[in-house]
């Protein structure tokens, strides 16, 4: 209201997402929400505003999430680096929403009894069977201790994001597409560019 520019990922945006969810349940209609932000750079603002938006959508009970990958500057542009960041954020939220396994095996009751007070679990079969995939493995976060991270040159999240983008771009294989469909898409893009709008790099 102060500038006319839209802001996303704000506390008000979260409230709106949750209220909208309540209204859609009241009227029994599907609800789609977004994981958006107003950041201009891949920085802390881009991350925390996107997380706020995601939690608004989750707490609002959205059936579908769109505009959650790569969104920058209030939707005025997209970014490959932001796509990597958002893929990690969405994966974390998805993992959080998975039901927790409370089975006797998952709770490791037998391993707890076998190890006993003062022992450790690093060598138990229960640990050896699960340590590779028991916990979420982030695309970006660096969970090494300070000393190991320091010895590695103190890499920051932005560096890891750029590294991942480079790896993904290098390994990209364009999917098969009917030449007639490709021609139609190319024509559409060229026509829309000619009609005006933001200058693009591609």
Task: Provide an overview of this structure.
This protein has 202 residues and is mainly alpha-helical. It has a domain at 1-98. Helices cover 50% and strands 5% of the residues. The chain contains 8 helices and 4 strands; from the N terminus they run αβαβββαααααα. It has helices at 11-27, 44-60, 80-97, 109-115, 125-130, 146-151, 157-171, 179-194; strands at 32-34, 64-66, 71-72, 77-78. The strands form 2 sheets. The chain has a two-stranded parallel sheet. Strands 3-4 form a two-stranded antiparallel ribbon. Helix 2 links the parallel strand 1 (32-34) and strand 2 (64-66). Helix 1 (11-27) packs parallel to helix 2. The radius of gyration is 22 Å and the shape is extended. The mean pLDDT is 91.
**Could you name the ranges where pLDDT drops below 50 across 5 or more consecutive residues?**
none
Class inferred from helices and paired strands: mainly alpha
Gap between N and C termini: 33 Å
Tally of alpha and pi helices: 8
What is the H/E string?
A: HEHEEEHHHHHH
Strand order of the largest sheet: 1-2
Strand composition percent: under 5%
> What general outline do the C-alpha atoms trace?
extended
Largest sheet: 2 strands, parallel
Task: Give the % helix.
Answer: 40-55%
